[in-house]
Amino acid sequence: MANKKKVVVTGFEPFSEHAVNSSWVAVQELKRLGLGEAVDLHVCELPVDYQAVQDILPSLWKEHQPQLAVHVGVSGLATSVTLEQCGHNKGYKRLDNRSFCPASHCCMEDGPDCINSVIDMETVCKRVNVSNIGITVSVSKDAGRYLCDYTYYTSLHQRQGRSAFVHVPPLGGPYSSGELGRALQAVVKEMLSFLKADYTEEEQKDNKPCHHKQ
To answer: Who is most buried in 52, 59, 81, 206, counting CB within 10 A?
Structure first.
C-alpha cells in the first residue's frame, strides 16, 4: 500500500534499577500486534544517553518521515499508562548510562522552556478509557527531567510538536507485557485518529510553548 501512514515508536534500554525496561518490552509487543494494514510501523530501542538521543532522533525523522513519532519510557512511580502533554528544555542534572549530563542542563540552549504536542492528550486519554480495554490511562504535564523528557522535547522540537510520549509502569506493576502492548496499540491508534480529524496547518502554526512551572 503506497499511501501507508508511517509511525515510529521508540522504547529505552535498561538503566538503573530497571534491568528489564518495560518500555522496550511494550514497544516490542506493539510491533507484534501492529497498527493495522494502513500503518507502516517502525520501532527502535534508544540508549539512555543524552548525546546519542541528540544524534539518533533527527536520523529517525529523516529516514522514515513519519506522520507521528511516539516515544515510550518507564516510570517507577506510574501505576497507569501515562500520556505526557509536553516536553521541557531545562533541568537535566541526572547522569545517563554513560555518567554524563549536559553541562548546560538543557536540551537546546536557545529553545523555549516547554513545547506542547499538537495532540490533545486529554482527548486521547478519554477515548481510550471509554473503550474498556481494561487498562487505565492518565495524563501528565511533567515527563520527569531525565532521558524521557529530554527525548520528548528533542523530538517535539524536531517536528513542530508532531510527537507523543507515553510512560508505562514496570512490568507487573500492575500490567503484563501483553497488556502494555495492547494499551500502546489503543493509544497510538487514537493519536492517529486525532491527527486525522483535528490536525490542521493553523494548529501547527499555533504550537506555542506552554508555561507550566519548572
So the answer is: 81
Overall pTM > 0.70: yes
Residues 50/54/57/62 CA torsion (nearest 10 deg): -170
Whether 84 is catalytic is yes
132-183 tens-digit pLDDT: 899 999 999 999 999 999 999 999 999 889 999 999 999 999 999 999 999 9
Instruction: Tell me how far apart the alpha carbons of residues 11 and 29 are, in angstroms, rounded to a whole number.
Output: 11
Grid cell for residue 83: 500520556
Q: Of 29, 86, 167, 190, which residue is the catalytic one?
A: 167
Active-site annotation holder among 84, 88, 125, 190: 84
d(CA 36, CA 135): 20
User: 148 catalytic, yes or no?
Assistant: yes
- Residues 6 or more apart whose Cβ sits within 8 Å of residue 145: 88, 91, 92, 93, 94
Residue 190 annotated among the catalytic residues of the structure: no
What is the tens place of the pLDDT at every residue in 52-91? Answer: 999 999 999 999 999 999 999 999 999 999 999 999 999 9
Q: Out of 148, 157, 179, 190, which one is annotated catalytic?
A: 148
